[in-house]
Prior knowledge:
This protein is 7% helix and 43% strand. It is mainly β. The strands form three sheets. An eight-stranded antiparallel beta sheet has the order 8-5-6-7-10-3-2-12, with no helix packed on it. The model has no long low-confidence stretch (mean pLDDT 87).
Amino acid sequence: MLNLFKKKSKSVEVLAPLTGTTLSIEEVPDPVFSEKMMGEGIAIKPTTDTVVAPFKGTVKMLMPNSGHAVGLLSEDGLEILIHVGMDTVSTEVEAKVEPGDPLIKFDEAFLKSKEMDTLTMIVVTNPGDFQPEQFLTNKEVKAANDPIMVYKK
């Protein structure tokens, strides 16, 4: 049987929002992320202190006081949460972003002085029509340059 009217699937690529080393979300020492309560995703052990936009889209949420997390919506409809650190403590915004636009700058020395981990989790918060295709773990990535995960729409 021919599927002439079936929609073609499209891959949605999420670039690294930080420079660092990727690892599986299951390796994150926080069960909220490792048990995927927040969604499927990936983590990055950063070597830089600036989170940038991983795709063209819209900033949907930014944590107002601590600035440790940002919610984004891609032009393809994929929603992600970028969460900097663990044990780090919403304002609605609608700002358009391009890959590489700075989103969060954190004080790595301060976080480490407070014994806070800078491990950063990137999770998909609206899996719905999106199926995970690939998670590129255990590799060095450069912010806004290297893909870290791919979803099929």
